[in-house]
Amino acid sequence: MKPSTEYQIFVGCDDPQIKSTYINDDELTDLISNYFIRKKVDFSLLKSTGGYLYADGDYAIENGVCISIIGAKEEEILKLSKSLSIYMNQEKSLIVKNDLKVKVI
Q: What percent of the chain is predicted at pLDDT more than 90?
C-alpha cells in the first residue's frame, strides 16, 4: 500500500443571490465535469444534500456536490477550491483532507 492524500471539496449548488438551485442535476454534472476536464484533474463526483448558514443569517438545506481528488498537492487543491467556488458562484467551499494508504489493482 502506498501512502497518499485524498482531498474532498464540498460545494453547494444554490445561488447565494436567489438562494435556490437554478440548474438540474444533469447540467450540474456536466458543468463540474467540464471544469475538471479543462483543468485536467482526476476526480470523482458525488451528489450530496446539506445545511448551509448564509452570511446574512439565513439557513438553507441545499443540494451540493462532494468532489474527491487523490494525490494532488495541497496548494493545488486550495487554488482549485477557490476557482471552483467562483465558477459555481458560491460564497465558500469546504475542504476535507484524509491521509490514505492506496493500492491500485
A: 21
Fold of 2-102: Alpha-Beta Plaits (3.30.70)
Could you give the 3-state DSSP secondary structure of residue 14? Answer: coil
Task: Sort residue 19 into left (φ over 0), alpha (ψ -120 to 50) or beta.
Answer: left
Residue 76 makes CB contacts below 8 A (sequence gap 6+) with none
Quick check: 87 and 11 in contact, CB under 8 A?
no
pLDDT digits (tens, 9 = 90+) for 19-69: 777 777 788 788 888 888 888 888 899 988 988 888 888 888 888 889 999
Question: Quick check: 35 and 85 in contact, CB under 8 A?
Answer: no
In the β-sheet with 94-102, what is the strand arrangement from edge to edge? 44-53, 59-70, 2-12, 94-102
* Domains in the chain: boundaries: 2-102
Contact predicate 33/95, CB 8 Å: no
